[in-house]
């Protein structure tokens, strides 16, 4: 059995993949594959509408929040957020807590003034509490990344920003892994390829009153108003990706919704962190415990900076047991276990077992 611990594109639920396989050539009795289906057809419209309705139901979204299916991934949204919101005052607050929020802030610098609300760090291992933040009262919005996939840092709170400044959040790598109150946000977005589907589609949920403030230079494909007006069909959408994502939404609903995903996520992440914390330093995670990610667990083996031979040996043993894609991001090295919704508790237990055995057999 293969267990895919990839950070993304990540594992999809097996029953969803089997459903896709069974309907690949003849989707929903149409006689053709969803990949061949016109995005203007009634058959495809039913698929997209079902995905939208299921997501709205999962999150209990109020009517004044619009769902857009867009392309360009999180990187596209780094620019789209600026084009659609930054023009309100020309300045935005960015909370840089890892690699992805750093990239978002750098992108925003091309379009306006960026206020970094916490000091720049060389390594990302914590999230300063809100009372230390230096906010710009003129900000068009406050931006943060809820879970930093590379660095393994995850927010344990939702920022409470004064003066009605909209909160914008990149939830790409922990979307639908725990409940959240959408009314605390002006906009969230999530690339599908972590928790909810294949790469190629990005979910954007935006409060209605924030639509229509785009600059005149905004490309149509990044324009929230145009995408909303055209029901995410301004151009040909990634139809296959949306189809699979819709099946994942149904899988989440069948399996207890977001609350159930959160419960399993807590169990899975605790299994791995417990091995790390009880290893007497053989394994080390640099992230402050308060903000350790439930989704992406980075760790080093042998010391706080890692022992190359041990880490290579661990990866080889993991692969021999069918555990794939555990190598850490190239920018930080080490090991990274990604525990998205499709990873089961049993699969996580297998990784914890390997870690425990490896530590016993390689005591330094």
The assigned structural class equals alpha/beta
Distance between the termini: 31 Å
Proportion of residues in β-strands: 5-15%
> Strand order, biggest sheet?
2-10-9-8-5-3-4
Write the element-wise H/E pattern from the N-terminal end onward: EHHEHEHEEEEEEEHHHEEHEEH
Residue runs with pLDDT of under 50 for 5 or more positions: none
Helix content: 25-40%
Query: Radius of gyration, rounded?
Result: 21 Å
Number of helices: 9
Main sheet characteristics? 7 strands, mixed
Q: Which assembly state applies to the chains in this document?
A: single chain
Shape: globular
Mean of residue pLDDT?
97
How many E-type strands?
14
Could you write a compact summary of the structure shown?
This protein is α/β, with parallel strands linked by helices. It is 34% helix and 15% strand.
